[in-house]
Write a structure and sequence with these properties.
globular, five-stranded mixed β-sheet, D-amino Acid Aminotransferase, Chain A, domain 1, 667 residues, OB fold (Dihydrolipoamide Acetyltransferase, E2P), 20% strand
C-alpha cells in the first residue's frame, strides 16, 4: 500500500470509529457489534504501526496514554469555575427570581431549566477543534491537569468537526448501570457513582482509567475565542452540533414557567429515572448571556444561576418488599437481600437492600409483601428501616432462612460464633465467584478487567476452579467467551500476569483468609516478611504479630494447613507467585506515629487510597470504623455517620488541608 492510499484509509477508519463512538457513548444507539468495532480499531492500529508518521494526537488509538504520571500538574482556570447557590424550597426559587429582576429593572428574564449531575466537575479546552487540555474544578481557580485521563472517556471527542477554539464545562460521571456492575467487583464498594468517578480520575495511570466505565456531559461554554451565540440555550445547541454530549434543558419564559416545567418534566415524568446519571438537583439559569454578565456575582457563586434541591429527594421513601433472596458470600455466609419495587431514595433509584441476617429480620418483623421504609445508611447504603404495619393486608409472609444453599444445594449450618448461616460446601460456585472477585479487587491483587460478568463466565464454564487457575488462562480461552473480544482478552491476560509482582500483603488479603482484612494483611506481611514464614508459623507465633488475637491466629493457622489451600498455594508458586514483603519504611516519630486514623468522605486533591498509604508511611494504623481507639478522623465532603460518631466520642477531626500540613505538605 502506498503512503497516499494509507493516508486515505486511515482517515476513513478514523471517521468511522469517531462516528461509532458518538453513536454508542453519546446517543446510546450502536449500529455495529463489539466485534465489528474491534475489527475497525485493529485495522487502524495496524496501518498506523506501518506508517507511524501518519499518527496524530486526535486519532482514536491515542486515547490511552503511555507511562503513568508521578503527579498531576496544576492548571489555572481562565474563567473561575464557581459553585452554585442552593435553594431548598420553591419559595427560595421565587426569591432568586425577585433578586434577578431587581438587578435588571424593566427587563423580561428568560430562564433555562436543566439537571445538575452528581459527578465530578471538569473543563475541556479545544484549540482549533483539537482537544488540548482537560482539568478538574479544584478550588475553582486552580485545578488538576487530567488531560490524559479525560482523553480515555469516549464520550469526549478528541477532535471537533469545526476548527473552533473554546473551553467547555461539564461533569464526568459513571452511568448508574455500569456503576452497579463495576461496584460488584469491589470488596469495598464505592458509596456512590460520584466517588467512583472521582477515584477513577485521580488514578495516575491513564491505562487504568480507560478500564473504568466513565462518561461525560457538558452544560456550559466557559469561554470562546469568537462568541457567536446570545443565549445559554443556543450555546447548548451549538455544543450538541459539535458532537459533545449535553444536558437536557427546557427554555422558560419566566419563573412561573420554570415552576410548571419542574412539576411536569422533572417530577411528574420522573426525570431522575430517565437519565443514566445521579442527579444532585435542578439548575435554573438566566438564559441571556448579556444579562448573565450584568448580574453581580455572590461571594463564591454566580448571580445568574441557582440549584434547587427538593427536600423530598433526601427523605426516606416507602416501597413494596416483593421478595427476599439469599446471597452467598466468599466465606459461605448467607445474606438475605430485600428485592424491592424500584424507588428513588436520596439521589439514586434503589431496587435492592441488605437485610443483614435472620435475627435482624425477626427484630424488625419484616415480612414478604410488606410496605417498607427505605433510607440510605450514612447517605450511602440502602437499608430497610422498618415495615409499615398499618398497611398490612394479611397476605404478607414470614421469611425463613433456607435449609440448603441456594447456589449449590449443599448443606447449611448456623455459625456458633455469629448470627450468620453458612454453606458448608467448599466447592460452592457462588463462594468461588465471590472469592475470585475479592482476589482481583484493587486493594488486593488489583487485576483490571476481572469483573463480575467475566468471573461468572469463568466459573460457569469450568475454566477456573480456584484463584490459581487464573494464571493459566490464555487469550484464546477468554476470547471464546461471550462479549469478550480478542483485544479485551489480551488486556485481561496481561493484567493477570502483571499481578504476579504484587506485594505480599496484597496476596494475603486477596486469599480471603477469614478475619484477615487489609490492615491485618499489611501487618502480617511486615512481621513475617515472606509467605513461607507465615505459612509455617504456629498459633503462638502468629499472635506475636501486632493486633493478631487468638481467633485470627487460629484462622490463619487453619487456612495454611487445609489440604485444598495447600494445593492452591503450590499452584500459585508454580505460576510465579511467591512474593516477599516490600512494605515501605514507616516514620518512627511524628504526629501520626502509632496513631489510629479513619478516613471518610470525598477528598478534593487525593484519593482515599493515596491518603491511607501516606498515613501508613507516617506510622499510622488506618482502620475503617470509628471507635474509642481512633485518634484522628480525616474528613472530606459527604462524611456521613462516621463524623457524627467521631464528634460523640470526642475524636479529633482533620480537614484535608490540615492532614497535608501535618504530613509535611509533601503528600
Amino acid at each position: 500500500m502506498t503512503r497516499s492510499d494509507a493516508e486515505k484509509q486511515i482517515e476513513r477508519l478514523r471517521r468511522q470509529i469517531r462516528r461509532h463512538d458518538h453513536l454508542y457513548y453519546v446517543e446510546a444507539r450502536p449500529e455495529i457489534s463489539d466485534f465489528e468495532y474491534d475489527q475497525l480499531y485493529r485495522q487502524l492500529q495496524q496501518l498506523e504501526a506501518q506508517f507511524p508518521d501518519l499518527v496524530t494526537p486526535d486519532s482514536p488509538t491515542q486515547r490511552v496514554g503511555g507511562a503513568p504520571l508521578k503527579e498531576f500538574p496544576s492548571v489555572r482556570h481562565t474563567v473561575p469555575m464557581l459553585s452554585l447557590e442552593k435553594a431548598d424550597t420553591l419559595e427560595a426559587l421565587k426569591k432568586f427570581d425577585a433578586d434577578v429582576r431587581k438587578q435588571l429593572p424593566g427587563e423580561s428574564v428568560e430562564y433555562v431549566l436543566e439537571p445538575k449531575i452528581d459527578g465530578v466537575s471538569i473543563c475541556v479546552r479545544y484549540d482549533r477543534g483539537q482537544l488540548v487540555l482537560g482539568a478538574t474544578r479544584g478550588d475553582g481557580t486552580t485545578g488538576d491537569d487530567i488531560t490524559a485521563n479525560l482523553k480515555t472517556i469516549r464520550a469526549i471527542p478528541l477532535r471537533l468537526p469545526q476548527p473552533v477554539t473554546l473551553e467547555v464545562r461539564g461533569e464526568a460521571y459513571m452511568p448508574l448501570k455500569e456503576f452497579a456492575q463495576f461496584n460488584a467487583t469491589q470488596e469495598k464498594p464505592f458509596p456512590n457513582p460520584r466517588n467512583a468517578t472521582a477515584g477513577s480520575l485521580k488514578l495516575l495511570d491513564p491505562r487504568k482509567v480507560a478500564q473504568r466505565p466513565l462518561s461525560a456531559v457538558f452544560y456550559a461554554v466557559g469561554w470562546a475565542s469568537s462568541p457567536s451565540v446570545a443565549t445559554h440555550a443556543a450555546a447548548l445547541d451549538f455544543l450538541k452540533k459539535l458532537g459533545l454530549p449535553t444536558v437536557p434543558h427546557w427554555l422558560c419564559q419566566d419563573m412561573e414557567e420554570v415552576l410548571r416545567r419542574y412539576e411536569n418534566d422533572v417530577e411528574r415524568n420522573d426525570l431522575r429515572a430517565r437519565v443514566p446519571y445521579e442527579l444532585d438537583g435542578i439548575v435554573v439559569k438566566v438564559n441571556s448571556l448579556d444579562q448573565q454578565r450584568r448580574l453581580p456575582p455572590k461571594a463564591k457563586a454566580p448571580g445568574y444561576a441557582i440549584v434547587y434541591k427538593p427536600e423530598h429527594w433526601i427523605k426516606p421513601a416507602e416501597t413494596k418488599l416483593k421478595a427476599i433472596t439469599v446471597q452467598v458470600g466468599r466465606t459461605g455466609v448467607l445474606t438475605p437481600v430485600a428485592e424491592l419495587e424500584p424507588v428513588f431514595v436520596q439521589g439514586s433509584t434503589v431496587s435492592r437492600a441488605t437485610l443483614h441476617n435472620e435475627e435482624e429480620i425477626k427484630r424488625k418483623d419484616i415480612r414478604i409483601g410488606d410496605t417498607v421504609i427505605i433510607r440510605k445508611a450514612g447517605m450511602v447504603i440502602p437499608e430497610v428501616v422498618a415495615a409499615v404495619k398499618s398497611k398490612r393486608t394479611g397476605q404478607e409472609k414470614i421469611f425463613h432462612m433456607p435449609k440448603e444453599c441456594p447456589a449449590c444445594g449443599g448443606p447449611v449450618s448456623r455459625d456458633p460464633e455469629f448470627v450468620a448461616w453458612r454453606c458448608e460446601n467448599i466447592s460452592c460456585p457462588a463462594q468461588l465467584k465471590r472469592t475470585l472477585q475479592h482476589f482481583a479487587m484493587r486493594n488486593a491483587m488489583d487485576i483490571e478487567g476481572l469483573g463480575e460478568v467475566l468471573v461468572n463466565q469463568l466459573v460457569d464454564t469450568g475454566l477456573v476452579k480456584d484463584v490459581a487457575d487464573l494464571y493459566s488462562l490464555t487469550v484464546e480461552q477468554l476470547a471464546g467467551l461471550e462479549r469478550m473480544a480478542e483485544k479485551s482478552a489480551a488486556n485481561v491476560v496481561a493484567a493477570i500476569a502483571a499481578s504476579k509482582d504484587r506485594e505480599l500483603w496484597r496476596l494475603l488479603h486477596g486469599l480471603g483468609i477469614l478475619h484477615v482484612g487489609e490492615e491485618a494483611a499489611r501487618k502480617l506481611a511486615a512481621h513475617f516478611g515472606s509467605l513461607d514464614k507465615l505459612a509455617a508459623a504456629s498459633v503462638e507465633e502468629l499472635q506475636q504479630c501486632e493486633d493478631v488475637g487468638p481467633v485470627m491466629a487460629q484462622s490463619i493457622h487453619d487456612f495454611f494447613r487445609h489440604p485444598r489451600n495447600q494445593v492452591v498455594l503450590k499452584k500459585l508458586k508454580a505460576a510465579g507467585l511467591n512474593p516477599i514483603n516490600h512494605q515501605p519504611s514507616t516514620i518512627a516519630a511524628g504526629p501520626f506515629a502509632g496513631k489510629t486514623v479513619v478516613v471518610t468522605g470525598t477528598l478534593e486533591k487525593f484519593s482515599r487510597d493515596e491518603v491511607k498509604e501516606a498515613l501508613r508511611r507516617a506510622g499510622a494504623t488506618v482502620t475503617d470504623s470509628v471507635s474509642k481507639k481512633t485518634d484522628f478522623l480525616v474528613v472530606g465532603t459527604d462524611a456521613g455517620s462516621k463524623l457524627e460518631k467521631a464528634r460523640a466520642l470526642g475524636v479529633k477531626t482533620l480537614t484535608e488541608a490540615e492532614l497535608v500540613k501535618m504530613l509535611g505538605g509533601s503528600h
